[in-house]
Amino acid sequence: MNHPRRGFIKSLAMATVGTSLFGACAPSYPNSSAYVSNPKKLPKVKVSKDRIIKETVGLRPFRQGGPRIEKQELGSKTIVHNYGHGGSGWSLSWGTALIASELVDETKTTKVAVMGCGVVGLSTARTLQKKGYEVTIFTKDSYPNITSAMATGTWSPTSRLVKPDRVTPEFAAMYQKACTHSYKTFQRLLGLNHVVDWMDSYRISNGESRASDYSSELKDKLVTPEVDFYPKGEPLKRKENPFKYSHVSKSPTTIFNIPSYLKMLQDDFLLAGGKIRIKTFQKPEDVDSLPFQCVVNCTGLGAQDIFGDEELMPVSGQLCFLIPQPELNYRANMSGVYFIPRRDGIMLGGNGIDGNWETTPDPEVRDKYLTALEEMMKNLKG
Ligand SMILES: Cc1cc2nc3c(=O)[nH]c(=O)nc-3n(C[C@H](O)[C@H](O)[C@H](O)COP(=O)(O)OP(=O)(O)OC[C@H]3O[C@@H](n4cnc5c(N)ncnc54)[C@H](O)[C@@H]3O)c2cc1C
After folding, report:
1. Among residues 161, 242, 272, 322, which one has the fewest Cβ atoms lying within 10 Å of its Cβ?
2. Domain extent listing, the chain
3. How would residue 228 be classed by pLDDT, with cut points 50, 70 and 90?
4. Is a pLDDT exceeding 80 seen at residue 215?
C-alpha cells in the first residue's frame, strides 16, 4: 500500500516537475489569433539549416483493425483498453476517452487507474474526473518523452487510423461518435490561451501523388455528412492565389499547440485532485497488482509488450523545427511535405515508415523537407 505522506510528496513533486518541464506560463503570440491569412501576400518562411532548433522521430501506434477500445477481464481486474490511434490520436482523443469512460461506468467503481500520460491517457483521465471518478495515472514517461509530444497536431481523424478494408459498420459508428465529440470539445477549447487555433491551409498540387496514409480511401468510407465538419478546400483563382503554382486550394483547419495543450491537460488533472505516479509495466501481472479494480490502458505502442498485442506496429514520422516566426499565420503542403507554424517552432514534416522503430532523425529526410519548403517559398508571389 502507498504511504499517504510519501504519496503526497510524490504527487507534489510531479506537479513541480510538470511546471518546470512546461515553463511557468505560455508567452503571448501576437498574430496567432488572426487565422485568416492575407490572400495576396503571405509572409515567407526563412529556410536554412542553421535555423533548425529541434528534430524528432515519433512512432504512431497503428493497428490494422483500428484503435482498441474494449473491456477485458484480467485476473481480479477489469481493464478498459483505449490505445492504437495511429496518426489520429490527437484528433480523436476526447471521443475515444468518452467511449472508454462509458465502459468504466459499467464497472460501478469510484476509483480508477489510468495507464499512460499521453494525450489519450490525459484526456481519458480528465473525462473520468468530470464524471466524478477519483483518478490516478501510472506512467513510465510524460512530456516530452511521449509520442503525443512528437506529433504534428492537426485535425486529421482519418490519418493512419485503420486499414480501409477492416472498416466494419461498428467501427464506422464508433468513429462517428468519437469524431463528433472530439470536434465539439476542440471548439470549446478555442480562446483558451491558443491551445487550439484555426489557420488557413494551402494545398499545392504539382501533379505528384501523395504518399498513402490511407487518408483519402478512409475519407470515402468514414466521412459521412454528419462528421464532415470542415469547409471544403476551394481551388484558388489566379488573382486570389498567393503562389506562382497554378493548382492551389485553400481551406481553414484546426491546429493544436502541443506543449501548452499537454501542460493544460496535466495541470487541470492535478488541480482536480488527480495523482501521477511513475511506474513501468512489463507484463499483465504488474497491472493486476495495482490497488484498483478498474484500470484504463492508454499506453499506446507500450501495449504491445505489456498485453502482447501483435497487431500493433509503429509508423515512424520525422519532424524538423525551425526558429519560430510569429508573423506566419498559414500552413502549406506540397508533394507530401508540409510546414505548420506552431508556437514552439515552424514544423516541417510529412513522412511515415511502416514498421520502423528507429528514432534517430534521418538527414536525407530533413534535406528533403528543407528543399521542398525552399521551393514553396521561391514560388510565393510578392
Ligand atoms: C510525426 C507524427 C505526427 C502526428 N500527427 C498527428 C496529427 O496531426 N493529428 C493527430 O490527431 N495525431 C497525430 N499523430 C498521432 C498521435 O500523436 C498519436 O496517435 C497519439 O499521440 C497517441 O497518443 P497516446 O496517448 O495513445 O500515446 P503516447 O503519447 O505514446 O502515450 C503513451 C503513454 O503510455 C506510457 N507507457 C507506454 N508504455 C508503458 C509501460 N510499459 N509502462 C508504463 N507506461 C507506459 C508512456 O510513457 C506514455 O505516457 C502523429 C504522430 C506522429 C508520430
Report:
1. 272
2. 65-310
3. confident
4. no
Which residues, in sequence order, are CB contacts of 55 under 8 Å at separation 6+? 318, 319, 320, 321, 361, 366
Q: Report whether residue 154 contacts ligand 1, using a CB cutoff of 6 Å.
A: yes
DSSP state of 107: T
Atom of ligand 1 nearest to the CA of 281: 42
Q: Whose CA is nearest to atom 47 of ligand 1?
A: 141
Beta carbon of 201 within 6 Å of any ligand 1 atom: no
161 Cβ below 6 A of ligand 1: no
Q: What integer pLDDT is reported at residue 218 of this predicted model?
A: 87
**What is the chain's percent helix, strand, coil content, to nearest 5?**
35, 25, 40
Model confidence over 237-261: pLDDT tens digits? 999 999 999 999 999 999 999 999 9
- Write down the mean pLDDT value for the chain: 89
